[in-house]
Amino acid sequence: MIYELRIYRCVPGRLPTLLSRFENETLRIWKKHGIRQAGFWTTLIGKSNHEIIYMLAWDSMAEREKRWGAFLADPEWVAVVANTEKDGQLVENISSQLLTPTGFSAVK
């Protein structure tokens, strides 16, 4: 199993719109493409409260490439992005790391 850690740093004031997009649109489209989330977080105490952090679970790099590519090219997703960003960009930057559990991890 491979886990992908993604951190989205939002444009100030735009986090509520991004959270709504994930909850009401993105998760539904991910389901269509077989993309599995492992969790979502926002920062309670820390460096920035303008971030959403989430993890995706993949069986392999090949699965990630296939499913993520299909999601990004999905016309429904393209329309959702255009609609939710009509008043301006939501995200300043995105960081992504692909992680593999250690042999002693509670998560496999």
Structural overview:
The longest helix is centred in the first third of the chain and has 19 residues, at 15-33. The chain is an alpha+beta fold. It has a 4-stranded antiparallel sheet. The N and C termini lie close together (6 Å). It has 3 helices and 4 strands; from the N terminus they run βαββααβ. α1 packs antiparallel against α3 (75-84). It has one domain (2-99): 2-Layer Sandwich (Alpha-Beta Plaits), CATH 3.30.70.100. A hairpin with an 8-residue loop joins β2 and β3 (51-58). The protein is globular and about 45 Å long. The model has no long low-confidence stretch (mean pLDDT 95).
From the spread of the alpha carbons, the general shape counts as globular
Strand content: 25-35%
User: What's the CATH C level?
Assistant: Alpha Beta
Q: How many H/I helices? A: 3
Sheet with the most strands: spatial strand order = 2-3-1-4
How many β-strand stretches? 4
What series of H and E elements makes up the topology?
A: EHEEHHE
Task: Summarize this entry quickly.
This protein has a single domain, classed as Alpha-Beta Plaits (2-Layer Sandwich), CATH 3.30.70. It has 108 residues and is α+β, with helices and mostly antiparallel strands.
Keywords:
108 residues; 39% helix; Alpha-Beta Plaits; 4 strands; 3 helices; alpha+beta; 4-stranded antiparallel beta sheet
